[in-house]
Amino acid sequence: MSGDSPSGEGIDIKCVGLTKTFRDFWMRPRVRAVEGVDLEIRRGEVFGLLGPNGSGKSTTIKMLLGLLAPTRGRIAVLGRSPRDVATKKHVGYLPEESYLYRFLSARETLDYYGRLFRMPARMRRQRVDKLLEMVGLDAVEHRPVGEFSKGMQRRVGLAQSLINDPQLLILDEPTSGMDPVAARQIKNLIAELGSRGKTVLLCTHQLSDVEDLCGRMAIMYGGRVQAAGTCDELLARSDRTSIETPLLPVGVVDEVRGVLGRHGIDEITIEQPRRRLESLFLEVVEQARAAGTHTSGARSGGPMAAFLQEHATESESAVEAITDADASPRDKAAPAVDTNLIDSLTRR
Amino acid sequence: MTATPLMPRRHGSAWRRAALAAAWTFGIAAVGFGVAFLLDAQGGAGLATAVRVATGLTCLATASHGMFLQADQLSAWRTTAVFLSAAVGGPALAEVAARLGGAAVGLPLVLLGSGTSVWWTWRSFRRAPQLRGLATSLAATLGALACVWFLNRHGRPLEATGLLGVTGMAVGCAAGLAVIRRVLSYPSGIAAVARAAVDEAVRMRAALVLLVLLVVMVPTLPLILDIDERLEYRVQFLLSWALGGTGLILALLTILMSCGSICGDIDSFRIHMTLTKPLPRWQYVLGKWLGIMAFNLLLVALAGVGTYTFTRLLARTTATDPEDRDAVDRQVLTARVAREPSPKNPSEYEAAIAEATARLERDEPDYFARNRAAVRQQVRFDFRWQWHTVSPDMVSTFVFHDLAEAKRRGVPLQLQLKPRVNNVDVDLAEVRFALWLNGRPWPVRDGDHQDQVLASNAAHVIELPAEEVDDEGRLEITIANRNLVPAGETRPTAISFSPGDGMRLYFRAGGFTANFLRCLLVMWLKLGLVAAAAVAAATMLGFPTAVLLSLVVYATAAGSGFLRDAQGEYNVVADTPLAAVLERLSAAADLAGQARLYEAWRMLLGFVGDAVLAVVPAFSDYDAVSQLATGLAISTSTVAACCGWLGLLYPLVFGLIGWAALARRDLLPSST
Hints:
Chain A is an alpha/beta fold. Chain A has one domain (11-347): P-loop containing nucleotide triphosphate hydrolases (Rossmann fold). Chain A has helices at residues 57-64, 85-88, 106-116, 121-134, 150-162, 180-195, 207-213, 231-235, 250-262, 277-290, 306-309, 314-323, 329-333, 339-347; strands at residues 11-23, 29-42, 46-50, 72-77, 91-94, 168-172, 199-204, 216-221, 224-230. In chain A, helix 3 crosses helix 4 (121-134) and helix 4 crosses helix 5. Chain B folds into three domains: 11-332, no CATH class; 342-510, Sandwich (Jelly Rolls), CATH 2.60.120; 516-664, no CATH class. In chain B, 67% of the residues lie in helices and 10% in strands. Chain B is built from 24 helices and 15 strands. In chain B, a hairpin with a 2-residue loop joins strand 7 and strand 8. Chain B starts with 10 loop residues before the first helix and ends in an 8-residue tail after the last helix. Chains A and B meet through helix 2, helix 3 and helix 4 of A and helix 8 and helix 11 of B.
């Protein structure tokens, strides 16, 4: 994908010529998972990374997170190396599966990740309370995570990815294993975060998720980016027109056909649209909940945690004060982008 | 989307309830026992006992009620009533049954009562999982104490002590764990990783098996010892087996925990969640090591408390004879310093060795030129034996230095001798000799210089008065051979004391408790090395391979003394490392030239042995357990050296290797 922001300002992820070759024990090249990928993701956008299984999406993400070392190519995340501890302070990551300590409870799990950010106990407790409520696990917070269903574990995973109120959120298959209600909540959350200036990299098979949420996307296959651009660019069909109206009487339909026929248009499909299954499902569950039906599983998530709604809030400043005592005031508001690094990457 | 909590939040009120229950319990106890004390003082003993029993029961009821109040959706009084009827009713019923039909009838009842109260607590707390473990542990402790009470009452003090020991160790383990978790809740990445490692270790099944083994082994060892054996040996056996076994079990546990924790994180991708947080990789490695070491500290302390208690209890049992009792108190449960003898005139002794070496060089130049260092060593060895041998009708003098402390303390000196008589090929032959201390005959009774008569090939301890030591802290011991002439011989046989353990002088330089603590510290530091090796291995290898490599490192460190001996005849003696290499190569070439290829190959393999022994530290250099069991003081310098090498330097090197491996590798399972 070619960069269309030449100055490098406001770019949260930039990678150029990213290549990853896995080697065997004898250091012989075995699999080339990613080859020559160029990506540029701007601040505040929700970006979709699409592709079939084995197309190199997860490998790309792991390189962006510093978990894998690229064989070739360069990466800048929030203007720094992805391995830099200062970068990781502002990144949230939800892996494709929730890899949690099975013996820790939901609360202990979030507390553990909070301590990795060196958050003081009081702030940790407040955030954990809010996040548990947000993902609907506050009633089962003391149960070991190992006893949770896959969807409930995903909720814990999502909560931990937000504990530091990240500027950049990397979500690998965020809705997999979740029921449609939870999936819709997560999609709402992603849209909300995007509208509040957070950058979200969404990696998924769920094409509808990308269509609903992402401003831009890239489609990978065979370790390469095959297509990239805004959703409108990629999805708009310039050779077709569709018209949607309230229910039309049969006579009116015939009239419309006639009008279009007079203009020489014969290829006409007029049908009554079906509801989307998702909206039906959400309605049924909402009715059951309103009737007070008991459930022992996860409940619906609560409202978005307050600390995620604040923009450069006091709490964030407090984390900064602890984790980055000597950072400049500009750093405290949001991670600074090293424009020189971005420029050098662009020039290569 | 609004959240309607299913259960009320309990964080604030739980502590308040617990504090209230505790305050009530203490208040009732203070009033009740205070009244009982006053009644007792007024002569109303019977009434005082009744008040004490009533107060105890009321306290138990209040505490139980407070405990069950913590579990939500529960009628606390009803639950308390069931709990008390099992926990108190069981022992009471058992006591009645035991009086009617004997202890064997009562025992199942007290067990049943305890078991029921534990089960009831576990069941009652199913809706408050965060407190379930704590409440059940409290009930189990109470049940165990009831059993101890019953066993003690019905003539089974040994079983009662064993059960009390197991209970104490379990309670200590739980309390220690709570303290460690509290300390590690400090908001830092290293502490977070360390605490997760501790939590993981606690829940590891292999760890649990080894832990149970440890908790069961220590209290049961005194029970399986042969009661007819000398108490001295039984105490030594308990000390060396309990602590040696603990060392082995904890080393295995450490390897499993370290490798399991890191390989588990990598194989299950949990490490992706951890290392995408602002945690440098060295902090991850350090955190894991610290967590394992914190857990080990708890286990070493646990095993230490158990071993110490049972050693003291065992030492209080009846000894076979007064000499045995004396040996336990003065040679085992103490911290003695050992002194080796030196020649009366060192310069003459060295000159004699030099002269003998020069003579050999002159007379047999070919033999000498083959390996000078080895010949010199052999001459020195021969001289040492010669000096330790007292010929018939001859006297030998042995000088012991640095005894000023013994004189100052006024503690008796213990001369340990293990005499051998030459030409008599039987054990326990009679050895007869006379002693002079600093030139004065000793002992003298009724004006006669008494001979010492000992059995050969057995260790004997002769106590010498400390006041015989001179002001410079020197004691000269002169020995004259007074052996009788054996049948069929014309001369008496010579007496020899093998250099090393054949003749030593000991004196008490400290207490057993402090020595025991030093021994535990050394054990813990050794585990530090094992943990660091295992952590380093786990950062670069898969679980089975990492465990195997760590076991090799541990086995090499633990068996280094044996490995040095096993090199045996293939060891080379040389003055410098380079000369040693050249000597080994030339020896291998000689052997190959004589077509002794297998031996030549083994000689070359010695390089591998030397390299391994040079890289892996030797645990035998810090053999604290055998020192403790033989009543030898573990010196501060040994502890400091152990701390520096095994606790800091080697872990640092292994840690750096682990960090370098983790920093370079892709964080994928090693099979991928």
